[in-house]
Task: structure prediction
Amino acid sequence: MKKIFLPFFILILAGCSVTITMPNSGIVPVSTSTGALFSPTPTPHSVLNQTSVPRQSFSPPTVTASGSLSFRIPILMYHHIGTYPANADSTRKNLTVSTTTFEEHLKILQKKNYKAITLYDVQEFIKGDKQLPQKPIMLTFDDGYDDNFSEALPLLDQYGQKAVFYIATDLVGNDGYMTWEHVENLKERGHEIGSHTRTHADLKLISGNDKKLQDEVVKAKHILESKKLGPIISFCYPSGSYNEKVVDLVEEYYEFARTTKPGIFTQNSRRGELPTLRMQEGVDLNTLLQ
Result:
C-alpha cells in the first residue's frame, strides 16, 4: 500500500475558481473562489459529520512565501492523572502526572494562548472546511483509565480545553478503567474518542497473524462506532509498537494514528505516524513549547 503524507498547498488566484488534478497523488483538490486546499480522500470508514458542532472563528495559519500551508501542532501524551499507589512500580510512576501538575500544564497553555483541538478539527482543516487556531495543540490520553474521567475531565472543562481519549475496548469497565457511561459522557462533552485496539495488544508482535491484527485494529473501531462514539477517525499504537504492515492496515481504516515517537505534528508528518511529546512528572512543558 502506498504511504500517504500530509502535504498542504494553497493556490491563490484572485476572482476565479480553480480545479487542479494531481495524478496518482491520492489527494483530491477542493475548489473554492479563493484557492484550492488539498485534502486526502475520506474513506467510507471515516467520513466526518460534525454538523452539530458550532463553527468558530479562527485566525488563519501561516502561509509560506511559496504558497504552501504550514502548521505546527504539539501533541501531548498523558496516561494516568492523579496519584499512584504506594506499591507502584517504575512504569506506573512514569505513566502518572499529578492532578496539580496537570492543572499547571493547563495554566501554561492558557497563558501562552494555546487552544487544544481534536483530530476532527485537523480533518476539517485538511478538507478546507475550517481554519486552525493560531496556536493549536492536542491533549491525548492513552488507555482509558478512570482517573482521566475523575481527575482530568473537570480540569479540561474548567480551562475550556478539548482532548482525545484513546480507548482499548476490552478494558472498558475493568478495575481502574472508565466505564462505557464515562466514555459516552466524554463524547457528549465534545471530546474525541479514538481507538487503542481491543486488548492493548502489541501489534508488532501479532502482525504475522492477520486475524488477530484485524480484530485488534478493525474490530475495535467497529465496537466504538457501535456505541455511537464515532466517527472514529484516529488510532493510537499500544506501547508505540508497530511495523509497516500494521501502519498500512491502520491507514486503511483510520485517517490518523499517533505513535510514541518524539516530535511535533506538522504538514510533513505521515498521517499514520504522528509524533508526540510524552508528559511525565517533572517534564518542563514551558521548555517543550519553546
Residues 72-288 form a domain with the TIM Barrel fold (CATH 3.20.20.370).
